[in-house]
Specification:
Layout lengths: L1 E5 L12 E6 L7 E2 L1 E7 L5 E11 L6 E2 L5 E2 L6 E5 L2 H7 L4 H10 L7 H7 L3 H7 L5 H12 L8 E6 L12 E6 L9 E6 L5 H13 L5 H4 L1 E4 L10 E6 L11 H4 L4 E5 L1 E2 L7 E2 L2 H14 L4 H12 L10 H9 L3 H13 L3 H16 L4 E6 L7 H18 L2 E6 L2 H4 L7 E7 L2 E5 L10 H9 L8 H10 L4 H7 L6 H17 L3 H7 L1
Length: about 525
């Protein structure tokens, strides 16, 4: 196997066999230029596009490029490399075993050879460039598994046992979450749903702290139940998402679990005295532009584009295909940053929430990432909420991650199967979790609302006000505005259900009038 370095933009050699090309890329990682695009011509002369790989060298300092020889059979032991996505190793897996291992050995791949990884992982070039957008756990598990001939994604299951009620008047609740790759419907999003104040956000808060807060005890936050992991952590990393300025979610510091394992998407910003401040619009804009930079290398850029296209439902007023193509073909980082900032500033608040959230998720989600999301419906109207859940499901299914969503919304519920839903009820001090008695995926939101909230037939109280406004053809946002934002989560769920019935059936109809 012969390797040749080819300058970006120059013509590739042709009629090659058992030959690999390393096409240079001027991508700059905090002063390190290490990126190459690997193309392999197999024994039959078939061209295989493998993907992005970064190559480092022991002793490299910032503001330098990796001095890879122009032509070689094997890199010497001062070099090491790492593919930048699981697709790199999957594409290599399409080659014959001997051919794949020859490529990985010649490039001294750190996922393939654990000894090289152990020796090189603390090098500045590794930390600041090769691992900039790659989680260490992904290298040690998924990348290594694929590089050695294993499956790209594998099924996994995890449980959570909540803390017992403080006064001893009830038992802990146990929730299980199973992810089955390539299942239909997908099983990567799990939902906690129930009446207002039943304890959804409380459970999600404790679950987040259970994973992320090294100082919290089992009595305070409960514990994770591992299935078939042999003592290894189930989750590679943790991402928490909430956009309420008043949420009670823990804002974990880097020292609690390590910056490589935790990412927060929301309105709060940590301070030196551990009392968080609310982020300014400029700070949120900065979060977005920094995250976009991380989503423009190789396959990650394609995932980002796919996620945004999923949000382009009819009448969304979001991003056009023309803008997206122009953005992705822009090579200059400063130009990309300016375009991203202009886009973000011009969006509605709901679209800003979705764009920032999906961009951060594309940046951070890998195999066995846990994403926790608290009440996404609080900032998203029903069509945008449904599109966001679909985009999230696609991303998690491809990456083999898991999201747990606490919500009041039947719009979220109809995007997941009943096997991925925990319906929460409280009887005195005892919290009870059970599966819905009906299938939820694709079910009518009115039926789902009745199933979840157990609404009694009534035409009094707040039901009457809500139905009257829905009959007047007001939108979800207009109804919230009429109440000056003073609607509880249960009422919001009813409004969503009524609007969905009205818009799909041309009115509420007698059956809906009776149910609500």
């Amino acid at each position: 196997m012969r390797f040749t370095v080819v300058e970006e933009g120059s013509e590739e050699p042709t009629d090659l066999r058992s030959h690999a090309l390393l096409i240079t890329d001027r991508w700059n990682d905090q002063g390190f230029v290490t990126m190459f695009h690997l193309v392999v011509y197999d024994e039959g002369g078939v061209r295989r596009d493998i993907g992005e790989v970064k190559i480092g060298k022991f002793g490299m300092t910032a503001r330098s490029s990796t001095p890879v020889p122009q032509s070689f059979d094997n890199l010497d032991d001062t070099f090491f490399s790492l593919g930048q996505d699981d697709s790199y190793y999957t594409n290599l897996g399409s080659l014959r075993i001997e051919f794949r291992e020859q490529v990985l050995s010649a490039l001294r791949d750190m996922a393939f050879d654990a000894r090289i990884f152990a020796h090189a992982k603390d090098e500045p070039v590794t930390q600041q460039s090769l691992l900039r957008f790659v989680k260490i756990a992904a290298v040690e598990e998924q990348f290594r598994r694929i590089a050695q001939g294993g499956e790209r994604v594998t099924a996994f299951q995890v449980g959570y046992k909540s803390p017992a009620p403080a006064d001893g008047g009830g038992e802990p609740v146990v929730l299980t979450f199973a992810v089955i790759p390539e299942s239909l419907p997908p099983t990567n999003i799990h939902v906690l749903i129930g009446r207002n104040s039943v304890g959804k956000s409380f459970l999600l808060n404790r679950l987040t702290r259970c994973i992320g807060d090294s100082e919290a005890s089992e009595e305070q936050v409960g514990r994770i139940i591992e299935y078939g992991r042999g003592g290894r952590d189930t989750f590679t990393n943790l991402v928490s998402v909430t956009f309420s300025a008043f949420d009670d979610f823990p804002l974990l510091n880097d020292g609690d679990i390590g910056i490589a394992r935790y990412a927060y998407v929301g309105l709060k910003s940590p301070t030196s005295n551990r009392t968080p401040k609310i982020k300014t619009p400029n700070r949120l804009l900065g979060d977005f532009t920094e995250s976009v930079e991380a989503c423009l290398t190789g396959t990650r850029a394609q995932r980002w584009a796919k996620a945004l296209r999923t949000l382009q439902y009819a009448g969304s007023g979001f991003i056009t295909d023309e803008w997206l193509e122009d953005f992705l073909t822009t090579q200059n980082a400063d130009s990309r940053r300016r375009k991203a900032r202009r886009l973000f500033v011009g969006l509605s608040s709901g679209h800003k929430v979705v764009l920032l959230t999906l961009t951060r998720l594309v940046e951070h989600v890998t195999e066995r990432t846990l994403v926790v999301i608290d009440e996404p419906e609080s900032h998203l109207h029903p069509p945008l909420l449904a599109a966001f859940i679909r985009a999230l499901s696609d991303l998690l299914a491809e990456r083999n991650g898991l999201a747990i969503v606490a919500t009041h919304s039947p719009v979220v519920l109809q995007e997941v199967p009943a096997s991925c839903v925990w319906k929460l009820n409280r009887y005195g001090n005892q919290l009870v979790a059970e599966r819905p008695v009906i299938e939820t995926f694709g079910e009518n939101v009115g039926i789902l609302t009745h199933e979840v909230f157990g609404l009694e037939v009534t035409d009094s109280g707040y039901h009457r006000y809500l139905k009257r406004l829905v009959r007047d053809n007001l939108s979800y946002e207009e109804i919230l505005g009429r109440f000056d934002g003073q609607l509880g989560g249960e009422a919001k769920g009813i409004v969503m259900a009524l609007i969905s019935v009205r818009d799909t059936q041309g009115g509420l109809g007698p059956a809906t009038e009776e149910r609500y």
